[in-house]
Queue: 4 jobs
Job 1
Amino acid sequence: MANAEKVTAVAELTERFQNSAGAVLTEYRGLSVAQLRELRGTLGEAATFAVVKNTLTKIAVEQAGLENELAPLLTGPSAVAFVTGDVVETAKGLRDFAKANPFLVIKGGVLDGKALTPAEITKLADVEPREVLLAKLAGAMKATTARAAGAFAALPVQMAQLAEALRAKTEAEGGSPEPAADSAQSSTAEGSTAESSSAEGSSAESSSAESSSPAESGPDDSSPDESGSDESGPAEG
């Protein structure tokens, strides 16, 4: 391969590592061309499967900043599954194909820049697909909404039951609040009647006092008349 071709190949690999959600390194020793074609069909749109040269791939992972995560895995015949879709679907496709074709060996990979061991990739394959998880989440939210609606609908009935329990308890303790209110109104009315009677009594006493007061009298006729008094002058001699 000419140097220009190598430079182009490294640039393409670097771009794939940088733009993919993840990458899984495998060893394909012993797999036929037909089996590799079958594997690509199994992965579908979730990932692209490419046979790579270790020397060029080491340069590409270094330029992509993934040297520590992937460079140690680049030994023997290597192929990379670049994740372009659902990571879980990719892991599931690789795991299932490896079970049916033991020559495919999963060596490890990266997901969002974090290294993954073969065991972690297999565990990732056991996760339910994104569509199933979303459907379960939607179902759980719907069930929660239904329970909340049922609780709100039951509130009026619960309030009525509480009111009835309070009424029964009040009667058991000696009467309902209504008779107590009537008694208070009756006491108020009696107090008003008593005040009215007291006012009438005070009015009667006032009238009696006025009738027993002495009448006004005119000047006393028996008083001596100043004009009738005897005045005597000196005797004439």
Job 2
Amino acid sequence: MSAGGLVESAQTGRAPSLLTESASALSAGAATAPAIHTEDAVLARTARAGADVVGDACVVWRVLEGGDLEPAATFHRDRRLRYALGAFMQQPALRAGSHWPGQVVTSGAPVRVRRVRLGELAVDTGIGMRRAHALLAPVLVGGRVLAVIATLRDSGEPEYSLREEVVLRRVAVKAAARAGARHGDWRSGGGDGDQGGDANGGSGGGAGRDGGPPSGDGWTPPAGWLMDHVGVGVWVADREGVTTYVNSAMTELLGLPAADVVGRPMRDFLEDVPQMVRGEYCMDAERCDRRLTQADGRHIWLEMTSLPLIDDDGARRGTVNTTVDVTARKQIELAARQRVPRAHRRV
């Protein structure tokens, strides 16, 4: 294995990758080493770019035909940790749709996660981090996710920002271009718009959304792309309050991938669900503040707007809830309330 852990795993029987073009022979003196494919050079370069410009460490999965994710490349800016990070390359393929990388495949949207356990990212290495801030982005070609890039930063450092997300998305676009990708689908409205699938991202190989719309007038992005790129969380529940859909922004607020949220009641995460979710209001919008418990145990406040889902027959089918993090506002309100003398408080 090379210092950056970029050599293909020696496991046999793996499905061929979508990016594989040909195997290049090694020198005669290294005839026993595994072959390095053209794709490995592309993804290895991508892993190095991700670590150098965005995060301390970077890992890359390639997406196989059935949607599973196979470890493809690693890099760490600290030379001493590159070998330890290389253990990632020996991990088995990740099942389609599972963990955070699987969500990126099914949604085609980047994800920023704070203080996530490396096990929840399906990354098992010896680099000394139990929890990390993670930033994941898809490599898209023609509306299909071909690889997933994940950069990691120690949880004691600042969280990833939107600016860094944009930088990593540019790294992903360059990776697609190096692999011979063509990016003409946006202009024709291609991508995920005509593909089938469930509410959380579609069919086996990943529906995918591209890195962003082109400039110009008269173009409307696909609805699925908009849902995963809006700046608010979208949380849909049925009449019993059981989650049926969450967009990428909502999974970031919850600290859990969509696969771990769909099918669970909203009350598992909220101290008190909105009244509309309980069926007490059916026709008017409800606005309220609710406290949410994230996956790592941290509490945040959400401003929620709930609207009923009404079918063509006028029957209530559930609720659509949009959420915004208002923890900072709540902390200011609490501090102001504590400064009010007790004698002036209302009983």
Job 3
Amino acid sequence: MAKTKKNDRDLIDTLRASGLRKKVAQTLASSSRSKPKGKAAKAVDESLQKLRGVTTIIERRAQEARRSEAGKKAARTRKRNAAKRSTAAKKGAKTRAKSR
């Protein structure tokens, strides 16, 4: 097993604490290691770009789980119609009570 530097270990610990799996954290931490400076920055940028892509997918799914505008309108219509029925029922009950 390869030894990790203290900087890499700190980064891995931080990534793990934020909820990433161990293998993903190790891969991200090692993406800048053992490469020339320019390629290391490119590797880190690519990793970050992939993470951003996944983040947007997760955010989009979370927004889809919310109730849509059409669903909200349907709920308002059902509530309004229920109120109409209730009012009509009360009026009918009052009329029947008078006639007895």
Job 4
Amino acid sequence: MTMTWYTRLLQHARAMLLPLALLAASSAGVAQQVQRCESADGKVTYSNTKCPEGTTPVRSVNTSPPVAVDEQKAAKERARRDAAEVKAIDKARAKDEEQEQRAAAEQKKAQAKERERCDKAKRELEKAKDARAELHRRPATIQQIQKSDGEIAKREAEVARACPG
């Protein structure tokens, strides 16, 4: 099956979305959790692993950089547009596949009809040949034989038209 324009576009859109998803996942994984740890005497330490001995975790500290509202809105809009584009591409692909299936069914029906026409023409030719053979078995006039020969020629022409190849 040939690759159509919407298949290539869909692959392109998915190829663009994958790096964005990986970037989002990696940035979430890069931001390690930092804890504020306090000892009994009030000394504060920060750790990105377990709190040191003699201290207790008080709270987690948000270390991820703030995301600009404009950037966040732009990213959401790009994601919305990309999702809509992918949906439209999928819809167009489904429509084209349906049209291809319908065309294939119509072609199959036409081929069956053509085969039936060919088979009928061959049967009629055989009947004409049988009728002529019957004329040779019994006494017949020249007109009857000529008429039978004309019928055979007509049926042979029908077979040639109805059965290409």
